[in-house]
Design a protein that fits this description.
Blueprint lengths: L2 H24 L15 E4 L2 E4 L4 E7 L2 E6 L5 H10 L7 E2 L4 E4 L5 H38 L5 H34 L2
Antiparallel strand pairs: 1-2, 3-4, 4-6, 5-6
Helix pairs in contact: 1-3, 1-4, 3-4
């Protein structure tokens, strides 16, 4: 194992943390309807838990409305129950063919709560990046102890891991800041 190997292993792990952050931020409500809003909904489909996106057509015909149309119409009530059970803060209306989810506008207090939630999610992901950094640093220190690399290589490796860490925490801050602005924009 070499310093390059450790660096090559570190970057994809940090990339995965950022991708997870993007996915989680996509689930935070902004006052506009998005298809990702229903990603967490799981429907009991003939006894097996199935993500809503795999059994229904989800669309956003208007900025404040999401429509859900199950491919199997006999599952319409099960889909409606799953949306209610997901506790998303919306009331579905079922007309027998399609489920409509009107997205209510956010008030100032709720916007602040959501901004705080975004900040907490970002902080969790920064911690995850630091854990990846720690694990890479430990690998470099172990390689030095085992005399697999020189002290200069170890210092170079530690510096490069820190640069990666700084880069990825910067990306996390930027994503969080963008999402907060999206939430606070009326």
């Amino acid at each position: 194992m070499s310093v390059d190997t450790v660096l090559k292993d570190t970057k994809p792990k940090m990339d995965a943390v950022v991708e997870d952050l993007k996915r989680k931020l996509g689930n935070v409500r902004t006052g506009r309807a998005t298809v990702g809003f229903l990603d967490a909904v799981v429907v009991d489909y003939y006894g097996s838990p199935t993500p809503l996106s795999q059994m229904a057509s989800v669309a956003v015909p208007e900025p404040q409305l999401i429509t859900v149309q199950p491919w199997d119409m006999s599952q319409l009530n099960a889909v409606e129950k799953a949306i209610i059970a997901a506790n998303l803060g919306v009331n579905p209306s079922n007309d027998g063919k399609i489920i409509r989810l009107p997205i209510p506008a956010l008030n100032e207090e709720r916007r602040k709560q959501l901004a705080k939630q975004v900040h907490e999610i970002a902080e969790e992901h920064k911690v995850a990046v630091r854990i990846v950094r720690q694990s890479s640093n430990d690998a470099l220190k172990k390689m030095l102890k085992d005399k697999a690399i020189s002290e200069d290589d170890e210092h170079y490796g530690l510096d490069e891991v820190q640069k990666l860490t700084n880069s990825f925490t910067g990306k996390i801050d930027e994503l969080a800041k963008t999402k907060e602005q999206e939430i606070m924009h009326v």
